[in-house]
Amino acid sequence: MEKQQQAEEGATNGQTGHTNKRKIEEIEGGRRTGRLDAFVIRKKADTPKKLKAPSIEIVVQNGRSVVTYEKSVLSEDECAELSQEVLIAGHWSRDVIPTFGKNVLSPRLVCSFGDVGTAYRYSGMIRKGTGWPEVLLAIKRLVEERANQPYNYVLCNLYKDGDDYIGWHADKEGDIVPGSTIASVSLGAKRLFKLRHEQTKEVKEVWLEPGSLLLMKGDTQKHYKHCTVTENRINLTFRLVNHRSG
């Protein structure tokens, strides 16, 4: 079983654009480059700039199962800066998943943030919320505005390349407030997101651009599973959870 060492803060490498593979490798190797400053997306605003006329695509609309997609919640510069700051702020590790009597490491790195005392359970793992770093507060406010609901937890997934993936699954409902919306913010490389209806097996697809927002509303988790075909990227999945740790 791998032990994921916490990374140490150092000097930033000034990288912009998509997620830097070298920085990811440094995190896995137990070193952390960069310096965590208070994340301010725009100096004159405490949230990312609002789009005047957001273009929202309806991916699924089937009874109480609704999935919407907004392509450009964050600008390219905002997306690049947020990617770097989340890499630095997170205590990344691989999940250890019991599979057929063996412990298997997940094919991606994971970290979590949230209100103190919250937690989210999945695949035999429990990830606790230990507070919100400044880096995530601005984007959290924007997501809450777009989804028209509060959030108290975010699970962050870090995919290094196409070999890191997440297969067909539905988010665990037991720890999520019934009827609440799950919000997914994509950073880094463009990725293909698929939804499959449990009964009809019909598949819907949408390409998630860096800086985009996907909202899964209502009963989506009851009737659909989803998966990702990934490249070098970070995904932030905001949830309103009802499970308390400890």
Describe the model.
Residues 1-20 and 30-46 have low confidence and may be disordered. This protein has a single domain, classed as Sandwich (Jelly Rolls). The chain has helices spanning 21-28, 76-89, 134-147, 220-223; strands at residues 56-62, 65-70, 93-99, 102-114, 119-122, 125-128, 153-159, 166-169, 182-188, 191-197, 203-208, 213-218, 224-229, 233-239. It is of the alpha+beta class and 246 residues long. A hairpin with a 2-residue loop joins strand 5 (119-122) and strand 6. The chain is globular.
Task: Give the N-to-C terminal Cα separation.
Answer: 25 Å
What fold name stands as the CATH topology?
Jelly Rolls
- Secondary structure tally: strands: 14
What is the architecture at the second tier of CATH? Sandwich
- What is the general shape? globular
**Nearest-angstrom radius of gyration?**
17 Å
Q: What would you call the structural class?
A: alpha+beta
Q: What is the typical, i.e. mean, pLDDT?
A: 78
How much beta, percentage-wise? 35-45%
Strand and helix order = HEEHEEEEHEEEEEEHEE
How many domains comprise the coordinates? 1
Helicity level, as a percent range?
Answer: 10-25%
Main sheet makeup:
8 strands, antiparallel
Q: Count the helices. How many?
A: 4
Low-confidence stretches: 1-20, 30-46
CATH class call: Mainly Beta
User: Taking strands numbered 1, 2, ... along the chain, how are they ordered across the largest sheet?
Assistant: 1-2-12-9-14-7-4-3
Oligomer: single chain
Say which CATH homologous superfamily is assigned: Alpha-ketoglutarate-dependent dioxygenase AlkB-like
